[in-house]
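Q: You know discrete backbone vocabularies at least as well as I do. I have my own habits and do not want them to colour yours. No explanation is needed for now; the record alone will do.
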Amino acid sequence: MNNQRRLIIFRRPFRPYRRARKDNVNQFIRAKQVRVVFPNGQTEVLPTHVGVKKAKEQGLDLVLVSPTADPPVCKVMDYGEYTYQEKKRKNEAKKKQHRMEVKEVKFRPNTDDHDYNFKKNHAVRFLKDGNKVKAVVFFRGREITHADLGQKILANLASDVADFGEIEGRPRLEGRQMHVIIGPRKSKKKESAPARTQAAAS
């Protein structure tokens, strides 16, 4: 009878949690020597461990900000506050970014003036917001034989919103609908000061 105990090895079904390394902070900075920028603006080239020690003495962290410099540049700062401000700045920049969308306005070959003006104003608002407008004319039944009416509506719309947008290509007829894309007009660059002065003088 075999009295030897068997050693059973249990494997974990998941990897153990490991805290992510911060390669740009304090003892995780790999460079042996760095240029340290202190809060008072003073700079000094120090061995990394000495820079970390001086930062800790001030209750702050040594943060690598320019790893490609020779020697790499570090700042003494509150790393927690720094990451918070960076995250806040990125979120604000993300909010300010405009994502262009394609807004659709629909017409019929027999659209009356009131309905046309209502939808034209929608198109102008979309273009002012920096979005594209897809103007579509829908045809029903035998209306498709009067495609020229759809072209006229789209041409009038392009002309009426010309101050805010410019047409991208010619109207296209696909199935029972004709459409055209109108993109927002790019703002003109402001005249330079010498040009304005010269224009005023003339």
Remarks:
- Strands lie at 33-37, 43-47, 61-66, 73-77, 102-107, 132-138, 165-174, 177-184.
- Helices lie at 48-57, 79-96, 113-128, 147-160, 193-201.
- Confidence is low (pLDDT under 50) at residues 189-202.
- The longest strand covers residues 165-174.
